[in-house]
Amino acid sequence: MKYHVFHGTTYGYSQPVSLCQNQVHLTPRITGRQNCLRSSVDVMPLPSCQNGWLDYFGNQVHFFSVEIPHEKLSIVARSEVEVFAPLEVTPAQTPPWETIREQLHLPQDEIVLAAAQFCPPSTFIHSSAEAHDYGLASFPPGRPILESLLDLTSRIFHDFQYDQNATGVFTKPAEVFQSRRGVCQDFAHLQMSCLRSLGLAARYVSGYLVTEPPPGTPKLVGADASHAWLSVYCGSAGWIDLDPTNNLVPGIRHITLAWGRDYADVCPIQGVLIGGGQSTLSVAVDVVPDLPSERPE
Fold it and tell me: What is the pLDDT of residue 169?
């Protein structure tokens, strides 16, 4: 399926900003099941300098510097992306989760070594007894890893309530455990905290959900906005994505922007500015399927 993605961000300032420098993760990744056919990032006022590069995790990063006074900053990212359905994996045929844990702690090749970097704590994710015990309930001895992952995903979906007003950008999993409320970023971090506490490798994925669901299916929570989920290393089954906010395995309706150790690695827009006073922020996201036009009889 092919999609057209629009992601517009506007900052308004009560006083002029004399200088701002930002780096953004707004270009969809090219992966085994996703192709970014074209992408652009337009900034107003026009930057005095800008460039791009691939970061440590292989995400496309765009940097710009605006060096003229301004009271409004507009960042518009447009992309055309082709997404393919993931390969079907039978949960019962995936390796026992302890086998994966052992591989990660004694990596024998570059693939496992690369996955192992997603085991340690990071900015937003720390091991804890609470996360360990909550996760362990889905991971009895010898259980195939994907069966356990799907069980944990379902439990988070049912035990925690989606609430846009309950948390902020810097909320940690320990706070979400207490309130039992949060948004997609929180639920991804929470599940990752459980998995890393068990010695497994989990990475944070930022992206989008398709805005219009197929006929007859409910609209997913998080549509018309940036979305977040996680991906878990499953040995011979590779990396498998999980969306605890919607209790499903992401498919052709999930578009991947970037991945990293947690939100801090893939924040859509981050930077510094001089001046500005009070600020306002508005974000508009639209993901439109590129459906073939009907031909006349």
Answer: 84
